[in-house]
Design a protein that fits this description.
The complex is a heterodimer of chains A (269) and B (99).
Chain A: H1 8-33, H2 42-70, H3 74-79, H4 99-121, H5 126-155, H6 158-176, H7 185-190, H8 198-216, E1 222-224, E2 231-233, H9 248-257, H10 259-263
Antiparallel strand pairs in A: 1-2
Helix pairs in contact in A: 1-2, 2-5, 4-5, 4-6, 4-8, 5-6
Chain B: E1 3-9, E2 17-23, H1 27-38, E3 46-51, H2 61-64, H3 82-96
Classes of the chains: A mainly alpha (269), B alpha+beta (99).
Chain lengths: 269, 99
């Protein structure tokens, strides 16, 4: 294991990786915070708000790691970038205030993020491995939450099931975008900074969640390849986020999220 | 929706104290919310979550605060020991005097 920052040629790829993961957490945390005050019940309101704070907290840790590598402060990374500089996947930027949609997205994201964090916790770059290990412990609660709610919505009533299924149908192509290959990821894999390529992590993720979807008979657009045993999607993923290409929903989110910062970028808080 | 009473143990070995309650549709979600409301800030080492309906309440004032029958003989406060004490002290002091 190494505590040294990586060599210059892999530094750019590492910055891309950290930015992508941090932006996912930051944007999802922002979106989920929109449920504060309007979640289905008081207890859930507090729990869901707290989880969105967790995501933003994870983004902060990673932005600080980026700050160490780039010399740009974490606040600036979070609020002073232009929309096309954000590398979050499209899944996290969608805005639809429907509870089944929120739960379905959270479940898809948290289970995928779990696989990604496990890979990062095996990174040869020690600072990243340490941080990923810490975040993993906090994500345990998120997985519990997603598990309980997904099962409930799947079995509670015809309406909850119908809403959950239509949310999943809408979200799956975006969810596959979580594992859109990152520019330069082969360098990170070669140096052991990233334990496996994104597409391999995606197969691992699909394999892990397949039993859930089978048991609950929910939409699962993937199947196991007969010869390799590897899980492959049966639908076209939606990519673009990892190259900074976003939707109109992101533009609106960015406008609002950075509005206070842009009033006075020099302000000291 | 069911109400669950929540008890927190601050440290291993300490007794559990009632923290408050939560509303949850079932026991599994009650555990989830109890963690959020009563354990998120490392204030609890262990948490007990009890359905309110499982609690057996005793709230009979006839039993807990019995009516105005003189029961003072059962408690220390029921006895005036002052006079007895004074007499005993006097006797002890008297016997200590040389003749």
């Amino acid at each position: 294991m190494s505590e040294q920052p990586p060599t210059q040629d892999t530094q750019t790829a590492l910055i891309t990786l950290l930015t992508a993961v941090a932006d996912d957490e930051f944007i999802l945390g922002y979106r989920n915070s929109e449920w504060t005050g309007i979640a289905p019940m008081l207890e859930e309101d507090v729990a869901f708000s707290s989880m969105s704070q967790d995501e933003i907290g994870h983004a902060r840790i990673l932005y600080e790691m980026l700050a160490g590598l780039t010399g740009v402060s974490a606040d600036k990374i979070a609020y002073a970038r232009q929309p096309h500089e954000f590398l979050s996947c499209l899944l996290v930027e969608r805005r639809k205030l429907d509870w089944a949609h929120a739960i379905a997205r959270q479940f898809l994201y948290d289970t995928a993020d779990h696989v990604r964090l496990e890979a990062l916790s095996r990174s040869q770059y020690t600072p990243l491995a340490n941080v990923a290990g810490k975040i993993l412990r906090e994500e345990k609660y998120h997985l519990m939450h997603g598990d309980m709610w997904l099962k409930r919505l799947a079995n509670l009533s015809d309406e909850s099931r119908r809403r959950l299924e239509s949310a999943l149908d809408a979200l799956w192509p975006d969810a596959l975008g979580i594992f859109e290959p990152l520019p330069g990821e082969e360098k990170l894999v070669a140096e052991g900074i990233l334990a496996a390529p994104m597409q391999e992590l995606q197969a691992e993720w699909l394999e892990q969640i397949a039993p859930y979807f089978e048991q609950l008979a929910l939409p699962f657009p993937a199947r196991q390849d007969e010869s390799t045993g590897r899980y492959m999607p049966t639908i076209q993923p939606v990519y673009g986020g990892r190259r900074g290409e976003h939707t109109q929903e992101f533009a609106e989110l960015w406008e609002e999220m950075t509005s206070v910062y842009r009033l006075d970028p020099q302000a000291v808080w | 929706m069911p109400i669950f009473e929540v008890f927190q143990q601050a440290r291993e070995g300490k007794s559990f104290e009632h923290g408050g309650n939560i509303v949850a549709p079932d026991a599994d979600l009650a555990v989830l919310y109890a963690r959020e409301f009563y354990g998120r800030r490392q204030e609890a080492h262990r948490i007990w979550i009890v359905p309110r309906e499982a609690i057996i309440e005793l709230n009979d004032q006839d039993l807990l605060h019995p009516p105005a029958v003189d029961r003072s003989y059962r408690t220390v406060q029921g006895y005036s020991v002052r006079d007895a004490l004074r007499a005993t002290r006097g006797a002890v002091a008297g016997s200590a005097q040389p003749d």
